[in-house]
Design goal:
Helices cover 45% and strands 12% of the residues. It is of the alpha/beta class.
């Protein structure tokens, strides 16, 4: 899975990353079921590690999910975090900034939503919208975008130095796959609420968005806040990659369950 890691300072060409890729898992029912079985094991392990993180209360994890419309941000959260205790996990979705938020720097509202110690925080879209959609639509200059790249790196370094590990995923789907998913939303009455005509306008800017994502990840993938490009056409493989990386990061923290209260002899303790 580490092949999807964006190495710091490396220029990117998303055309070289196959959104339909499944690595060693064949695109067959057998390969799919094998991947799902491993993902189930990972999500179970994730639940155990999250419990330790919560109990220890000295570290936290921030997961950033970015991608084009229909790339599967909601589905990833629902599937990968299915074994996590909701008390120790919070999802934040960033919409268009309010007038109060616009009166501050662009990271002001984001910092307030960073996870507390012991927590896993998930950003469904994030501070990166301020160097993606704003750039694609020409709402800010390239000079401002470059400044924001540096500010984002400094912000994420601040989080890291204060005990928050940052893990960032770009859910990479093809334009054809997006077309199919949008059409599915139109056909299915239970999914029509997700459809927004604005999605079609953004789709027309696909190449611009791909270029913006390439620049963003090349500029802001660091050792302490890495980006991963996740092949997301196959939902079952997308979930496997994301779960694998999250578990790997939590394992690396080497967090142990806190010791019991001193002075209690649990061998002789009786509850009456």
């Amino acid at each position: 899975m580490k092949e999807y890691h964006v190495k710091p300072g490396r220029q990117l060409n998303l055309d070289k990353y196959d959104p339909d890729g499944t690595n060693d898992y064949k695109k067959t029912d057998q390969g799919k079921e094998k991947a799902k079985a491993i993902t189930a094991e990972l999500t179970s392990r994730l639940g155990e590690l999250q419990e330790r993180l919560y109990a220890d209360g000295t570290r936290s994890l921030l997961i950033v999910l970015q991608g084009m419309d229909t790339s599967g941000k909601d589905g990833t959260i629902k599937s990968v975090m299915s074994g996590v205790n909701p008390q120790g996990c919070k999802v934040v979705s960033f919409k268009a900034p309010s007038s109060e938020e616009l009166s501050h720097d662009f990271l002001w509202r984001v910092h307030q939503k960073a996870p507390a110690k012991g927590q896993i925080g998930i950003f469904n879209r994030s501070h990166y919208e301020d160097v993606l959609i704003t750039r694609v639509h020409g709402w800010v200059s390239d000079k401002i975008v470059r400044q924001r790249f540096d500010q984002i790196k400094e912000f994420e370094e601040l989080l890291y130095e204060n005990g928050t590990t940052v893990l960032k995923f770009f859910l990479h789907i093809s334009k054809d796959e997006q077309k199919e998913r949008l059409e599915e939303r139109i056909r299915d009455p239970e999914k029509r609420w997700k459809f927004n005509e604005g999605d079609l306008e953004e789709r027309k800017l696909w190449k611009n968005y791909m270029k913006a994502f390439e620049d963003v990840m090349a500029a802001t993938s660091t050792d302490h806040a890495p980006w991963y490009i996740v092949p997301a056409n196959r939902k079952w493989y997308r979930n496997l990659v994301v779960a694998d990386r999250i578990v790997d990061v939590l394992e690396a923290m080497k967090i142990k369950t806190p010791p019991a209260t001193a002075g209690i002899n649990f061998d002789t303790l009786k509850i009456v």
